[in-house]
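As promised in the previous annual report, we have extended the structural survey to additional targets. Below is the entry for Glycosyltransferase family 2 protein.
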Amino acid sequence: MENKKLSIIVSVYNEQEVLRHFHSEMTKVLDGMNVDHELIYVNDGSSDFSQSILADLAKDQPTVKVINFSRNFGHEAAMVAGIDNSTGDFVVCIDADLEKPPAEVIRMYQAYLDGNEVVNMVYSNNKIRGAVRQYMTKLYYKFLNKISRIQFVESSSDFFGISRTVADILKESYRERKRYIRGFIQSMGFRSISLEYIPNERYAGTSKYNFKALLNLAIVAITNFSDKPLRLGFYLAAFCFFLAGIAGMITIKDLIIGNGAMILDFAMLMFLFIFSLMFFFLGILGIYLGDIQQECKGNPIYHIKDTYNF
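The corresponding structure token record, generated without further manual editing, is:
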């Protein structure tokens, strides 16, 4: 196997129950590959014993590196920090929960050697997530691909590999505070490949991605890659104008037949409906304006408290 340096970025948030086992599995894979490598753990402000475990793992192992955040900045920020501080020719992002099999890194590395700049890992036979979540994921990607400027790989995740070229572009150009990294790397246009994998059961602990976190990530993806929700205001205005015309005709008819009570009830319903549409659109506008405000502030994506072996 050609010896191009490999960087493994591992996002960690309260994973004390699984860290040592993950490290053992990942180390076996890397030792078997026999390539120059670095294993970078990014501790995203864990409140358990993850930090002390990582410090112990990094002891006397110069290829094991640790970044500790000053607080929790989120999974995307952890991946950004790892990519920013990596030095490998090929960079793989993976979680520590062992749902993503470390052994798949071998296939990903080979795909990179075959000339691919981006390697997307796509889960298949995902019984672990349940039928409802699988259906919602498919629905989400169909909707996202319908309204976005690019077409995303369905069922892709934050398990991916990128070349040094792509990593440097992310480091220099894609510095949004609200990020959708899997979307960024797919939108660049570099040669890519999608590999299917079967996810494992989570080794221990619970998933840190609850419904709210997934919903927030979906909103970030939409606002990053589509302006169609903003255009919705025009269509809502046209729809309300059409409704106003119908309401006017109904009102004239009721006036002619002398049905005053019906006119009042209908007018109230129309006002409620139109105001609901207005506030719905204002909510969409508020999301975009909030994102713009965050970008204008220029705050750092993350703060590093300390590091090991850098």
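The mean pLDDT is 85. The two ends are 27 Å apart (CA to CA). These points will be discussed at the next consortium meeting with the crystallography subgroup.
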